[in-house]
Design a protein that fits this description.
The complex is a heterodimer.
Chain A: H1 3-6, E1 26-34, H2 41-47, H3 53-62, E2 79-84, E3 96-101, H4 103-114, E4 115-123, E5 130-134, E6 137-139
Antiparallel strand pairs in A: 1-4, 2-3, 4-5, 5-6
Chain B: H1 4-7, H2 10-13, H3 16-24, H4 26-43, E1 50-54, H5 60-65, E2 79-84, H6 87-95, E3 101-104, E4 118-124, H7 140-154, E5 155-165, H8 170-182, E6 186-192, E7 200-206
Parallel strand pairs in B: 1-2, 1-4, 2-3, 4-5
Antiparallel strand pairs in B: 5-7, 6-7
Helix pairs in contact in B: 7-8
The chains are: A alpha+beta, B alpha/beta.
Bound molecules: zinc ion.
Zinc ion binds near residues 124, 127 and 129 of chain A.
């Protein structure tokens, strides 16, 4: 499960819906893995306004990963201009400007989309319910009386 | 052939053998793929989005959602999160190493994401399962209302959902679409090839209050 997903996931139990402490769920006994994926700056830009940055920072700390900056990056910082010589140009005279993902975008992509919880559990800060994660799949099936 | 959802709940019906049969049948794959493309066309996504796939199964639709726009996925590639009640189906999705995050979850118990999470949602051949209650403690209407209320809240304003499903009859069709309307959705039923054995029903749902800019 990507950390992106964890930034949107809440406790499924009805009585927790209205409690602010049911988000974010807290990972415990986690085994993390990096699953490489193509960077998609348009997607990152789409997601930025929807991220709960403080909660993301909190989870990153709970997982023992390097701390994130205090504030979310600005959408304009996701791309940077690079100068390059077009392919096949041997003269080196026709330098062109291209937009490439910045280091900020690469770091964000790494934490949100490539850092995954493979095994462990997610614990609700309100009711204490534990959701198991196995092979990256979280079990959110609830016993009938908790629905 | 008896309809599977009349005999067993999906977590029992899609056991390992059924799940494998479902996923390897090229006829089913082809139908599933064409219905996913139809749903995507109705969603009108214009840029890479965060999607929910309800009843994602072995990830047949998900593979299309993960494809770039150059491969025929409008606005793609999208990032998706899939829910399914069948662990056998999810097991196949894991083996295929699909790109979406997978959840073992019953959509009839709700949608556990915070408000405004998704740009859009898609569901192919799944929500008719919500119409059968699996125990005396829950009703079909309770399951439908928990699902649609949860889905409505989890979509951003201006978001959309398209659910292709196989209603057993007109009563069930009405029961499903009116549950969606009660949850707050603008809802329309679209039928492709009506009156034929290839008839497909799509429930097209909109959330008001924002621009659908993908
Ligand atoms: Zn809880």
């Amino acid at each position: 499960m990507k950390l992106l997903t964890l930034n949107f996931l809440t406790c499924a139990i009805k009585t927790c819906k209205t409690s602010p402490s049911s988000f974010p769920l807290h990972p415990q006994d986690s085994e993390l893995e990096i699953v490489e994926a193509d960077i998609n700056v348009l997607f990152l830009r789409n997601m930025l306004p929807r991220l709960m940055w403080n909660e993301l920072r909190l989870i990153v700390n709970e997982l023992g990963l390097p701390s994130l900056p205090e504030t979310a990056p600005d959408a304009s910082s996701l791309l940077e201009t690079k100068l390059q010589v077009p392919e096949g140009d041997t003269t080196g005279l026709n330098i062109e400007k291209i937009e490439v993902p910045s280091q900020v975008a690469k770091d964000l992509h790494r934490v949100l989309l490539e850092t995954c919880i493979r095994e462990g559990k997610l614990v609700c800060g309100n009711c204490g319910h534990e959701y198991k994660v196995m092979e990256g799949v979280a079990n959110f099936l609830l016993p009938g009386h908790l629905v | 052939m008896s309809r599977p959802e009349n005999t067993l709940p999906p977590d029992l019906f899609y056991n390992d053998t059924e799940a494998l049969k479902y996923t390897t049948s090229s006829r089913i794959q082809k139908i599933q793929s064409s219905m996913t493309h139809r749903a995507l066309q109705l969603l009108q996504l214009k840029s890479p989005s965060l999607l929910l796939d309800i009843g994602c199964g072995s990830g047949l639709s998900g593979e299309i959602l993960s494809a770039p726009s150059s491969a025929g996925t409008p606005g793609g590639p999208h990032i998706w999160i899939g829910l399914d009640i069948s662990s056998s189906m999810l097991g196949i999705a894991l083996e295929k190493e699909v790109e979406g995050d997978l959840f073992l979850a019953d959509a009839g118990q709700g949608v556990p994401f915070r408000a405004g999470t998704f740009d859009a949602a898609i569901s192919i051949s799944a929500i008719q399962w919500l119409c059968n209650a699996e125990s005396s403690s829950e009703s079909a209407s309770g399951r439908l209302s928990r699902f649609f209320n949860g889905l409505y809240a989890s979509l951003r304003r201006g978001g959309r959902a398209v659910c292709q499903f196989y209603p057993k009859n007109d009563t069930q069709k009405t029961m499903v679409s009116s549950a969606a309307v009660r949850a707050g959705f603008g809802a329309g039923l679209l039928e492709d090839d009506p009156g034929t054995k290839n008839a497909k029903t799509y429930l097209v749902l909109t959330v008001g209050g924002g621009e659908l800019d993908g």
